[in-house]
Amino acid sequence: xxxxxxxxxxxxxxxxxxxxxxxxxxxxxxxxxxxxxxxxxxxxxxxxxxxxxxxxxxxxxxxxxxxxxxxxxxxxxxxxxxxxxxxxxxxxxxxxxxxxxxxxxxxxxxxxxxxxxxxxxxxxxxxxxxxxxxxxxxxxxxxxxxxxxxxxxxxxxxxxxxxxxxxxxxxxxxxxxxxxxxxxxxx
Amino acid sequence: xxxxxxxxxxxxxxxxxxxxxxxxxxxxxxxxxxxxxxxxxxxxxxxxxxxxxxxxxxxxxxxxxxxxxxxxxxxxxxxxxxxxxxxxxxxxxxxxxxxxxxxxxxxxxxxxxxxxxxxxxxxxxxxxxxxxxxxxxxxxxxxxxxxxxxxxxxxxxxxxxxxxxxxxxxxxxxxxxxxxxxxxxxx
DNA sequence: TTGAAATTGTGATATTTGTCACGCAACAGA
DNA sequence: TCTGTTGCGTGACAAATATCACAATTTCAA
Lengths: 187, 187
What we know:
The structure is a homodimer.
Chain A: H1 2-10, H2 17-24, E1 28-32, E2 37-39, E3 47-53, E4 56-61, E5 67-73, E6 78-79, H3 82-87, E7 94-97, E8 101-107, H4 108-117, H5 119-145, H6 148-158, H7 162-165, H8 169-175, H9 179-186
Antiparallel strand pairs in A: 1-8, 2-7, 3-6, 3-8, 4-5, 4-7
Helix pairs in contact in A: 4-5
The structure holds a DNA duplex.
């Protein structure tokens, strides 16, 4: 399990065995079943999560009861309600498992210790944050420049497997389209 | 000029005079006039920019000639075509001045030197990257949960001055709405 | 000052997308 | 196996938004 984390980090910064032992000691491992919630709306958010295996989604439920998927998190992804994680407020979103999943959990305190303790890890998280920012920007561009059909095609091209792993309602609410419209587009 | 940068950084990490002198030495200052382009589509992107004063926009022009505003950058903001900045490819977007502007420029090499040289700066940029990521996520949520009118109101509430500083075509193309629709919404 | 260009509002209409309703098929749990 | 739930497609219609056209106003440079 931890090996996956090491590989993942070492794509960006190489680590000695001792360094990785230090890093690794800050994570705890957890198993979740399909449909379980890792974070519920209103929770204190103490952890961010590295997905070892499985599939998660970060969801916002609006007042009218509609679900909006802010992001999916597949293997090797980091996820949390970051706004809340960094400001220590209560979760506005929930983080749910779409498949049985194994995650590594990191508390905010340990995250800060890791960053302060080894510049390598701070660098690693900086690179990840950049990648996240660039990814979000791509998604914003997609909203600005593309209609529903084009956004669907872009998502399909980027994550073809996603459509086999989850029901089509979910990509629809990630794309900001009703499931009926998505159904018509994809047929 | 550099004082603004120092204040800005010190909101996150305190710096000694020597430290700031070291940081400051990596930036060069530039003036641009309204309508000038700091980055043009196709350029090599060598710098990222800290806006001392003025107003910039990051724009993507699609094949059909439509303009899409990926972001505005006001005083105290950092901006660049980050994807390109970090991957050393050619600009897909352009960065234009909406007012006479003063910016501080940082090359990628110097950015890396700064990060490697002082953990404080790496930490500073990490915090900035998080804030950027959270901001993008907010905008994505806005696309997912809100119609044109609500998005307009959110933007207006967040940056009321923007609507006095630029023509209404621009907020429209930031919101992903035609200028006609925006005009009808705001009247 | 003056004339050209840019900005803005608004009507008419087309297009895209959402909503509601329904039936059928697949699937999971008792 | 039975049965309720969920997922999926699709028709009919409604709502949101885009597009095109035009006139009034403002801005700005010669």
